[in-house]
């Protein structure tokens, strides 16, 4: 083979190597871009673990940039523009704050405070009487913590001058007999305990800061009294759930204080759900909860006494002996 042919073959091989390096550089840049996108999507779903994106994950090849051989691929990635997602998000938020008007909810009550200049009647420069030509108004969101009040029920007594009959209106009923708590206070205690997960001792401390001393034991009595009042509603939910042709059930462990031992023991909350909307059922869904101090099979069998239908549950042996299985 002549030297000219060898030179042509070497040149062709060099061009092939250069083309391969270009393809490898393009793949690396694509991988870097996909890595950054994956990182951004994970952070959007699971939250970020740091305030800034790592610079190695933020380096993205500029759109439309020329591809480079393998030896220069790393330098191209380092010299490419760095996209800081945090700064970009902050800039968008700042721009939105500048363009969008800040409006507070219209259903909130308004209290207007007028700030008059001093002096307000005469011009401070020449003493001439002033007249209003306009005004500037701005709104600020404020918060006033829950305020206690005392409802004083007065029942006047009336007497007949002729027959000496005494007439007086009946005393209004109370949520808890002979209790000092009204329906609003009891509702606040229940919402704080079961919706906001605020223990009773903390609620007692909060109320004490407002000058209302209510012991934790008293709050516990209020919760127990409210449970007795709501028992008919719980019974109605139970009847509705068990009237379905199919229900779902499961149990979950809950820690319960063990008096005298200074520790907790494991109790159970049994959940019975009625929801067949995926199967085309138009009946409203409902969930019924029942408590038991342990996980013995007698509890679900007692809960489901009289139920005739399909029970969807796990392989807990306590369901096996039930009549409906």
TrEMBL record:
It holds the Pfam family DDE_Tnp_IS66. The keyword Signal does not apply. Keywords: Plasmid. Residues 178-321 form the Transposase IS66 central domain. Coiled coil: none annotated. Residues 34-113 form the Transposase TnpC homeodomain domain. Residues 121-164 form the Transposase IS66 zinc-finger binding domain. This is IS66 family transposase. The lineage of its organism: Bacteria, Pseudomonadati, Pseudomonadota, Betaproteobacteria, Burkholderiales.
């Amino acid at each position: 083979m002549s030297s000219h042919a060898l030179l042509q073959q070497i040149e062709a091989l060099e061009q092939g190597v250069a083309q391969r390096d270009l393809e490898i550089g393009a793949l690396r840049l694509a991988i870097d871009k996909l890595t950054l996108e994956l990182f951004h999507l994970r952070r959007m779903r699971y939250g970020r673990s740091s305030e800034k994106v790592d610079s190695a994950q933020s380096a993205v090849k500029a759109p439309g940039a020329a591809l480079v051989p393998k030896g220069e691929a790393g330098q191209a990635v380092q010299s490419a523009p760095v996209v800081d997602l945090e700064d970009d998000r902050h800039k968008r938020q700042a721009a939105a704050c500048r363009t969008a008007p800040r409006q507070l909810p219209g259903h909130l009550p308004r209290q207007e405070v007028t700030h008059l200049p001093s002096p307000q009647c005469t011009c401070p420069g020449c003493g001439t009487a002033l007249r209003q030509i306009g005004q500037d108004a701005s709104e600020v969101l404020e918060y006033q913590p829950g305020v206690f009040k005392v409802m004083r029920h007065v029942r006047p007594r009336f007497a007949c001058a002729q027959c000496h009959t005494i007439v007086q209106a009946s005393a209004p009923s109370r949520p808890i007999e002979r209790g000092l708590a009204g329906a609003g206070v009891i509702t606040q205690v229940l919402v704080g305990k079961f919706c906001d997960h605020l223990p009773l001792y903390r609620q007692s401390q909060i109320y004490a800061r407002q000058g209302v001393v209510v012991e934790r034991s008293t709050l516990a009595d209020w919760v127990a009294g409210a449970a007795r009042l709501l028992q008919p509603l719980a019974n109605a939910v139970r009847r509705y759930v068990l009237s379905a042709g199919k229900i779902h059930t499961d149990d979950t462990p809950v820690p319960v204080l063990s008096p005298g031992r200074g520790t907790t023991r494991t109790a159970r909350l049994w959940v019975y759900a009625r929801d067949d909307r995926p199967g085309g059922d138009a009946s409203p869904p409902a969930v019924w909860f029942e408590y038991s101090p342990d996980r013995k099979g007698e509890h679900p069998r007692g809960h489901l006494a009289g139920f005739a239908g399909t029970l969807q549950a796990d392989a807990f042996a306590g369901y096996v002996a039930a009549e409906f299985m």
